[in-house]
Batch of 2 targets.
Target 1
Amino acid sequence: MKPQGDDRFNTLAQARFLLSAARLAQLPDDPAAEVAFVGRSNAGKSSALNALCAQKSLARVSKTPGRTQLINLFALPGGERLVDLPGYGYAAVPEPLRRSWRALAGGYVERRATLRGLVLLMDVRHPLTPLDRQLLTLAGTAGRPVLALLTKADKLGRGARAATLRAVGAELDPAAATVGLFSVPEGLGQAAARNWIAARLGLAQTAAVSRPD
Ligand SMILES: Nc1nc2c(ncn2[C@@H]2O[C@H](COP(=O)(O)OP(=O)(O)OP(=O)(O)O)[C@@H](O)[C@H]2O)c(=O)[nH]1
Ligand SMILES: [Mg+2]
């Protein structure tokens, strides 16, 4: 349900596919702000993007991990962009693809001048894998603010998800990363994630009150 007057919600709901890039050189070179979704293959990046934009098939959701191998960009009405990065760490991905992930998504996180923040998606049942930690180090070095979302929270009971949230929160530097639980079917964590993204993109702060989780 869309609450009356929540302009940030309306803005994300107007996201439209812009382009897919196989190389960094194919990315737009205008100065519009971007927030990128990153994480392990199958962590729920595309699902989170769709849920936050209240659209069923903006980004492609797949049962086959490693599907998204391109950088997919979605444009908001003001020109700001949401970016779906290829997933990392899927065991069956051959070495050449891993190298291309580092060059493409790693290079994007490291060097993209318009990148204002990273939404790091981690399955609540397997958070902080070695590659997640590498990504956090990369984000820290590049000075990228991180919103770490523990996805598929609906797969755990209340106690277990709260314990995971505390454990992950204790490991991350609160100055560099915000942590929250997230679930598409439960709608959990969506309002907070929308607010974080809106703040990073500099979207109009007209909606002081967002909808509750
Ligand atoms: N139960 C549950 N399943 C989810 C949730 N989010 C995503 N999934 C499922 O997890 C699988 C992977 O989701 P995607 O959104 O495609 O994951 P991705 O990170 O974009 O994957 P790649 O693009 O392959 O890297 C799909 O089967 C989704 O339906 C959630 O909050 N709860
Ligand atoms: Mg995806």
Target 2
Amino acid sequence: MVDMAVTVGGLRMANPVMPGSGTFGEGLEKVMDLNRLGAIVTKTITPDKREGCRPPRVVEYKDATLMAIGIPCKGPEHYMEELVPIYRAYDTPLICSVSAPTVEAFAELTAQISIDGVEAIEANISCPNLEKDGKAFSMDVRATETVIRAMKQVTDRPVFAKLTPNVTDIAEIGLAAQAGGADAITVANGLLGMAVDVENFRPALGNVTGGMTGPAMKPVLLRMCYQVCQAVSVPVIGCGGIATASDAIEYMMVGASAVQVGTINFIHPTVMLDIIDGIEDFCRRKGLTRAADLTGAMQIDGYNPQSVGTQIQVA
Ligand SMILES: Cc1cc2nc3c(=O)[nH]c(=O)nc-3n(C[C@H](O)[C@H](O)[C@H](O)COP(=O)(O)O)c2cc1C
């Protein structure tokens, strides 16, 4: 028997697998048993209704997606009145992803959304901080710490900080989130990219730039997850390019306590169930009795990796 349960930032989950925010559509309960997931994560909720970015919103590559969706949102009431009741019917914990343009708005939304049935809040702090220079909150250590602290003050739910990978030193941002009181840190959102529609002399995305996601991004996001895991003491949730159980296990072996599965859900809507089964099979094959024992299980055997500008030090 393999005990698949993990605890992340005080949230007990039946297994370490959950969807990445925005990649888990309304209605998926019709094609899979949501009770099998470790957690459910909502699309990011914003304080006001939003249209999102102008189209085109997506450019597809063989193993990656470039997208600028712009967080279209029907407003918090839609989620609280229509979605939370659907998910409350399952045993699976519900994590609400929130985002806002100011620290105050983040805090207000966090308080508003901390209702029965919402068991944790994920702060999508990859969004622009409109009180400052418009850079994403999680591109700046001070903004990261400030916004997480403000959220922690208004909710008794665990707060997870979801970071942007578009920084030079993600470990210092992870430390800032921890200093602000984050109960866990999700690494990470999409990598900034762009593409040009040469036939029409136009940017391929209506928003010009967007986030690269999907399997091709995994080595970069895995490296960032490793760096954050090395720096912080709170649990880390790995996210970026996970398509198979083996990908998820890589994230856990570099230190993640749980994983989020994103873009691949659009291709294989039930892939998370295969990933859960695959992690269990792997543990059984390797004689591990607990999935949680995968966390940090990678060994480097005393070799001190050469610095490649990544500031990774091995004791
Ligand atoms: C279509 C799409 C919509 C997304 N929407 C959100 C969102 O609302 N909030 C958020 O925090 N991340 C959002 N993401 C990012 C994913 O949750 C995830 O962090 C990212 O896609 C990396 O994981 P992946 O490579 O497995 O896709 C979105 C990604 C995609 C592809």
